[in-house]
Design brief:
single chain; alpha/beta; Rossmann fold; five-stranded parallel sheet; three-stranded mixed sheet; globular; binds D-mannonic acid
Amino acid sequence: MRLSPRTDLPAAVGRPAYDRTAQAAGIVHIGIGAFHRAHQAVYTDDAMGAGDRDWGIVGVSLRSGDVAAQLNPQDGLYTVSTRSAGGSELRLIGAVQKVLVAADDPQAVIDAIAAPATHIVSFTVTEKGYLRRADGSLDLAAATELSSLYRFVGAALAVRKAAGLSGLTLLSCDNLANNGSVLRRLMREYLGSQHPDLVDWFDSECRCPATMIDRIVPATTDADRAAVEATLGARDEGAVVTEGFSQWVIEDDFAGPRPRWEAVSAELVTDVAPYETAKLRMLNGAHSALAYIGLGGGHEFVHQAIADPAIRPAIERLMRNEAAPTIDAAPGQDLGAYADALLDRFANPALHHRLAQIAMDGSQKIPQRWLETLAWHQARGHRCPSLEAAIAAWIAFLRGDHPIDDPLADRLREAAAGPDAIERLFGDGGLITSDWRPA
Ligand code: CS2
């Protein structure tokens, strides 16, 4: 039997503490993958549980119908399992109302964003979904295709302006450096080209706060779904599995109303940069290093790689000696304690986080995870042995005899093949743009 609003939940399973059928949708979320369902949707469910109203989420998949097929027959309901060495907890999330597939019904997406009750459009479209060229500018050809977030937001903003409706908050929840200002700049570039009459209105009526988002969410497996079914007594095709830890730091700069996420443990701050930089360079930087070094060492999962005495010291060094010194910590932000906590999180044996999942899209991740740290040290005449080992492991990975999941896959493979790989990847005019230059 499939999970539905009529499922008789076991007593131990948490559930929404509000009337979900009475909530308007205040948020449209583009890119409704497992991460959003285990992170922002949980905070929003908590906020409604704490008394906020009308923050239902309309999820959007730009291309694939998979999540719509998982959630729509369940009336948007799904479970989140949090797993630690101490056991597992299961909870039903009610914040998502439905999932639209942009490729099938583009107008429905525009209508949802243009709806008067919508105040926030949030995004987890992964690094490559922002459609940046190597120099950081918008790839306009890609941005005018049907699968581009810019097309939908641009068309809906035009409707809102013409109808005299309020502007929107566009909330990037992806692991980019300065994700808010990157989204603002790219959206302006798109509007400047496709809707020039909207640029001034966008500047005055819309906001793009920066965010630091953090929760480790491995891709759900069939075994996970079977384990959930055994506890739930119903089949949840949309189940997500994650760790207990969750963090969300948000720049408090919204165009209009927002959920009281700060009442349910999100942090609303004036400057996200110290948290975002620490997260990208320490957590994500270590993750990518673990992925390539770990796969090279024959491991499959993060918890195995971090337990390997030949790998762990390099990862500790990357976080404590290479990444941490580059970060201007906020008052009270303890980077040593952060590194300790990350090592514990990586070691979580109950979470089967595949290294191959992290190894995807290296070309899009490595600049903000590794190269900013390397450039900082290079300017001071220091070497970074762990990051250099990580780069060597990435190149070995690109040379490997296995599929490479990356928008630049073919060019990376070719560039990595020869003795001048470092130069062709990172040198002047190389595939990966950054301020770091190979010595
Ligand atoms: C990971 C992230 O897949 C990856 O590249 O580094 O998804 C990571 O698990 C999250 O950013 C944790 O918040």
